[in-house]
Amino acid sequence: GLPFVLAVAALVVVRTPARWFLAAWIVLLFLIPNVVQVSFVSFDMNKYFQAMWIAVAVAAGALLARWPTVLVVAALLFSTASPVLSSVHHAFSQNALMSHDQLEAADWIAEHTPERAVFVTDDWIISPTDPAGRLRLTTFGPYVANLGFDPDLRAAQVKVIRCGGDPARSAEIMAELGATYVIPDTSGDCPGRVDFGASPLFEEAYAKGSITIYRLASAD
To answer: Is the Cβ–Cβ distance between 127 and 99 less than 8 Å?
Structure first.
């Protein structure tokens, strides 16, 4: 964007304060995420670019300090387009939000389940268990991978519990893993969806709106 272009231009101007230091800062933090990946998700390396942007802002500011006020204002207005678009996206995107049904389920979980209760849920970024302060067998796979663990084995176990078609097997795995509650999979990617309500091994603990939670009967 424009700030980066201005920063590069400032670095060729001899009068720019500490220009070699700023140049080293910008070049080094620009190169690292392009040649090294220490995170499971390559996008997470953007943190280096965020740190680089401090030097970019300082260098670009040194150049703008020599410009007429009108040009400075124009450059600042032009540079706001990208962050404004990003802000609008995050203000209206519902990708990482919970529904009202999920929030109500979270309130119920917080009030009616033990503090160390373990739930079987999907592996999305957020689940009703999270604001309720409860544990779940799996979370967002890349987060697990970033800690050095392979999330695939646990993800496969959760898939069997919710979509394996055999409630007895679901109960067996849950008991092995110390899980007591399960939120069924209602997505379209669950061909063998387990009917927990039809099995004596499970009892309905909560049902409201689109959320149903079953409890392992043997946990009594």
So the answer is: no
